[in-house]
């Protein structure tokens, strides 16, 4: 999902859910015909068709080194619920594939980067056989640095680009500046790198830019990453039933709210409302379109979109929403402390907070229990959910890189994509035992040095298939995977699911104001009629022309949403 977008969490939460030890929830498939020109032969806008893409894609060879406790189902991550036994860790990379070369990597980093040559970097480079040199950049301003570097002639060997930074001229720069990895990975060639061969095909399809396989992906489950999280302990104590429709939620909310006692039912529930009413995904522009009876319809044009906003507005009007949310701070400030204090009982946020809230309260508040509600259909029936994209962060290799550098980069990726339960996974995600982490009763815990050194670095190059593993709270891991499986059973793929689409620049900012208008409507500052007028204006200012452009794209390339 796209962090900080209308239907997404923060960048930091996204990373926690995809790149950290929790390993993976967040967001194509056709893939690139020439809808725009480019001197390097790649399309500058458009996508690549499913049939053309097949010859570009790596062969899929499922890994057999480790068997998960809970296999993937309905698009879910795989799950591990058993304790970690370091003596039983498997080896997925039996020999070093790196040839000892030097590779420079520019990547976003949140926090204070560790010193060069630290014990983690040394251990990883020795394991891989490559001298990786990190050029870490502030993740909060990464888009600015990225634009400047890609506009220059000094591009590092590897550049990591999160999906939320693929705006403006960045997509065209990706096509013009980065190498075609197809000769090394397409078809059976990928079998030289078994951990890369085990990455799901959807994630590779998402890595095709300008008609070439250019990206190394961080795979994600396509099931929505936004969960209605609730205080299960308080629900049980007070006898509240978990809602199964929008009416039931409103009934619960009115019963639970007592402003004098500083308790409200919820925060801003807009994201869950969109899911409950079956609104198309808003976490990427192309996912907002779907073909209905031969016509492309955008999410903002649907009755479901307006109905979701109206229901959320009624929650605010009923006074059941925490005051912080009414002031517009609902999903910006950290909700943890007030949630732990019981000031509100439900909020929708990134999937990763299910575990992180459990972990942070385990010692200081033993009775605290957070759980995820199943998303309900607004009328009490089964929900209609829409898939998010199967990869959201990519690493690219400089187009001027030599074959030896490309091979060394792939050697790095083959280690970082190792599955949970392997020595390579532990090295990538935890560092060196004793220095960066210890293990007690099957639960690894980072040391102070581990929290300094082992941060978001190597995990950004490539990752294994979506995985959820919490040895400290195995019941949460099981709960998360089973939630994904249940929600995945109700998840559909919209027409442009998984497509790596570059819209023409003239329409890039067409929908920018809708998130703010949504928030104004649900807080009563604007009316539904204002939204209807905004949609009408959107159509006349380019929305209808953009629809025609997408329709042409669909006619020429087909859909990969099976």
TrEMBL record:
Main localization is: other
Keywords on this record? Signal, Transport
Locations listed in the record: Cell envelope
Q: Which Pfam families match?
A: SBP_bac_8 (PF13416)
Q: Per the record's keyword annotation, is Signal included, yes or no? A: yes
Protein's UniProt keywords contain S-adenosyl-L-methionine: no
Family per UniProt?
Belongs to the bacterial solute-binding protein 1 family.
The name on file for this protein is Extracellular solute-binding protein
Q: Which organism is it from?
A: Streptomyces rochei (Streptomyces parvullus)
């Amino acid at each position: 999902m796209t962090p900080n977008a209308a239907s997404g969490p923060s960048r930091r939460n996204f990373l926690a859910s995809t790149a950290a030890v929790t390993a993976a929830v967040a967001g194509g498939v056709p893939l690139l015909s020439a809808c725009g020109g480019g001197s390097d032969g790649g399309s500058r806008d458009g996508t690549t068709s499913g049939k053309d893409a097949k010859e570009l894609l790596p062969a899929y060879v499922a890994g057999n080194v480790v068997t998960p406790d809970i296999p993937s189902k309905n698009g879910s991550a795989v799950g591990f619920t058993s304790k970690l036994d370091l003596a039983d860790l498997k080896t997925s990379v039996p020999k070093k594939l790196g040839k000892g070369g030097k590779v420079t990597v520019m990547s976003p980093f949140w926090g204070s980067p560790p010193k060069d040559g630290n014990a983690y970097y040394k251990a990883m480079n020795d394991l891989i056989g490559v001298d990786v040199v990190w050029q870490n950049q502030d993740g909060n301003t990464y888009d600015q640095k990225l634009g400047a570097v890609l506009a220059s002639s000094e591009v590092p060997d590897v550049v990591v680009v999160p999906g939320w930074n693929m705006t403006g001229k960045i997509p065209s720069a990706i096509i013009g500046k980065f190498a075609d990895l197809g000769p090394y990975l397409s078809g059976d060639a990928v079998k030289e790198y078994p951990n890369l061969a085990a990455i799901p095909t959807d994630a590779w399809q998402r890595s095709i830019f300008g008609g070439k396989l250019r990206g190394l992906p961080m795979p994600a489950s396509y099931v929505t990453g936004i969960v209605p999280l609730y205080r299960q302990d308080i629900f049980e104590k007070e006898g509240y039933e978990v809602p199964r429709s929008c009416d039931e939620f409103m009934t619960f909310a009115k019963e639970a709210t007592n402003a004098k006692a500083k308790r409200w039912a919820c925060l801003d529930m807009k994201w869950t409302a969109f899911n409950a009413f079956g609104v198309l995904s808003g976490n990427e522009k192309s996912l907002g379109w779907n073909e209905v009876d031969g016509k492309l319809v955008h999410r903002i044009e649907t009755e479901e979109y307006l109905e979701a906003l109206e229901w959320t507005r009624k929650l605010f009007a009923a006074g059941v929403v925490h005051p912080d949310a009414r002031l517009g701070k609902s999903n910006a400030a950290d909700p943890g402390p007030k949630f732990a204090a019981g000031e509100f009982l439900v909020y929708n946020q990134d999937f990763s907070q299910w575990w992180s809230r459990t972990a942070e309260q385990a010692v200081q508040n033993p009775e605290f229990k957070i759980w995820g509600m199943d998303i309900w259909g607004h009328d009490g029936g089964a929900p209609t959910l829409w898939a998010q994209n199967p990869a959201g962060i990519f690493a690219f290799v400089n187009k001027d890189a030599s074959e030896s550098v490309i091979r060394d980069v792939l050697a790095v990726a083959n280690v970082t994509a190792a599955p949970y339960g392997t020595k390579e996974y532990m090295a990538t995600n935890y560092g060196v035992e004793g220095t960066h982490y210890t293990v007690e009763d099957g639960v690894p815990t980072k040391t102070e040095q581990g929290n300094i050194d082992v941060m978001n670095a190597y995990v950004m190059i490539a990752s294994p298939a979506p995985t959820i593993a919490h040895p400290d709270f195995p019941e949460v891991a099981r709960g998360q995977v089973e939630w994904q499986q249940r929600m995945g059973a109700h998840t559909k793929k919209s027409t442009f699911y998984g497509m790596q689409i570059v819209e023409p620049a003239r329409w890039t900012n067409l929908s920018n104001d809708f998130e703010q208008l949504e928030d104004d409507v649900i807080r009563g500052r604007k009316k539904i009629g204002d939204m209807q007028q905004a949609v009408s204006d959107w159509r006349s200012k380019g929305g209808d022309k953009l629809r025609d452009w997408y329709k042409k794209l669909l006619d020429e390339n087909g859909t990969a949403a099976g």
